[in-house]
Design a protein that fits this description.
heterodimer; A: 327 residues; mainly alpha; MetI-like fold; 13 helices; 73% helix; globular; B: 309 residues; 2 domains; MetI-like_sf (chain B); membrane (chain B); MetI-like (chain B); transmembrane helix (chain B); ABC transporter permease subunit (chain B)
Chain lengths: 327, 309
Amino acid sequence: MTSTTPTSSIVQDLPKSRGHWRNIWANFRRRRLAFVSLILISFIYLLGIFAPVIQTHDYQETNLRETQQGPSTDHWFGTDRAGRDLYTRVVWGIQTTVIITITSFVTGSLFLGVSIGLVAGYFRGWIDAVIMRVGEVISAFPDILLIILLAATLRPRITEFARDVEDSTGISGLVSSGIVDYVVIGIALLPLSWFGMMRLVRGQVLVLRDAEYVQAARAMGTSTPRILFRHILPNVVSPIIVSVSFGIGAIALSEVVLSFFGLGVQPPRPSLGVMIGEVTARGGASVSVLRDHPEQLLAPIIVVWLLIFSWNIVGDALNDVLNPRAR
Amino acid sequence: MLAYIVRRLLWTPVLLALAAFFVFFMGTFAPGDPAELRLGNRATPERIERERERLGLDDPIPVRYFRYVGDVLKGDFGDSYHYQGRPVLEIIAPRLWVSMQLNIAALIVAICIGLPLGFYAAKKQGTGRDPAIVISMLILYAMPVFFTAPFLILFFAVKLHWVPASGWGGFFSLQIILPALTIGIPGAAVFVRHMRASTLEVIGQEYVRTAHAKGMSNFVVNYRHVARNALLPILTIMGFTLAGMFGGSLIVELIYGIPGAGRLSLDAIFQRDFPVLTAFVLLGAGMLVLANLVIDVAYTIVDPRIRLQ
């Protein structure tokens, strides 16, 4: 039977260890503003995900008898120049933001950035040199210009390609589904997203590759991929999370800018950038719109504003919680 | 350090050549025929063919690229496709000058607001004012230009009539105030953040306590011991900020109707005016690289502990 020894009673008196991630979560939750921001972000994203369910009208439905209306019980945020319901369009616009954030983050920052960073940091030598030089060339471009240039040049080619695929396979609706837009935006944002993440991961790996536990793993004959993914990667996760949370706001804003110039999401599909661009006539009419129909400009802008602000607050808090030594 | 500078200076032309090749390649990849674009409606197939020949568009890409690089080395960036036959440099230079003035004004705004406020927030750590400053700056930072620009115009120009609503009148005109604020305020938020962090770091140092213990006045300790040392890391951020500003004034130029380089390059992208675009990217990248080099070197002068290698 069990007989309690002195040591085990001491152990029992200690507070229960909750595990690394649960500790972090508990610390994070204690930061009220960050926690509220996280709830706000989730709420906004849920609005976007459930857009088809919570829409009150059809986002394309025009009603020329009800144009430029202020907020009312029928149109919660009012209507635009074509009489389309602003609330519905904002909600669908958020869905676009959600899709683009996820696709460009998973491909650019997480997949490319992390894997290239691991390789560059671990193997060093000429691979590292080449990767770093390529990154330097890319970061020598003014950001927004490079994104716009890529989107403007690639869009016609990718649309053409999608049409060819439609013709040869018989699948229809590929172009009209908006997939082309997402691919174009995803590729255009690549140069922005991969290099920062790559440099971050590389820097961490450069330190970790000579750590004793990694040397031990190598001495035991562990394969290189296993060392990279099982021993090094888990120790780089914290800075990656922090960097992602700061980056998401920037990605959302870039999509807005691209769509504002008509290079991102194409009408009739709504996006926050498309809405801002249409309402202000590409910036030209901003002032008169803000004066006469502020809700038309503010509805999409406040969402973007809240998203960028909240992600920054969350990023700050995560930075404090995950990298306590950096303080 | 000399070796470092030389190495960086030697790498710069290579970097620019690669950057130029990238834009050049994008130009050939883009749909639309420059010769056709140049001629517009008057184009007959024969004329297009002759124009292509004259421009050398039928040569292989590497040949065209090296011809371009050779011309650039002689200071010739080619002729614009859109603005008939005018040399690119002649079109870009005045626009670039406008954008530079605007961005310098914005940088001044950012520094004048950001550094003192960041320093003040750090000194007030532990009181309610510190988080209040940090959060309100973050709110301003997150505010999209699409809102800031029309809001400032509406408030200061339309309502109060303090400044003209839009247009461009040079560095010393009233018109520059609003666009400079629009770009400068988010920049100030970045400076507040970094200045606050670096001040906090310095405040905890022993020499600051020693200075206080010696009986030096608060003013002298704050400015001679704390602020001057806290400014060091800010230098690097200046480089990044300059970089971000270069293309960042694009939307602002659009809304305020400023004839700057952002506007020009945007038009060039849509009109497929690749000579203008390539030149713009080259000049932009070159200025960025040089600015960063100057900042690196300035760093070693301000802080002799740092050695470049």
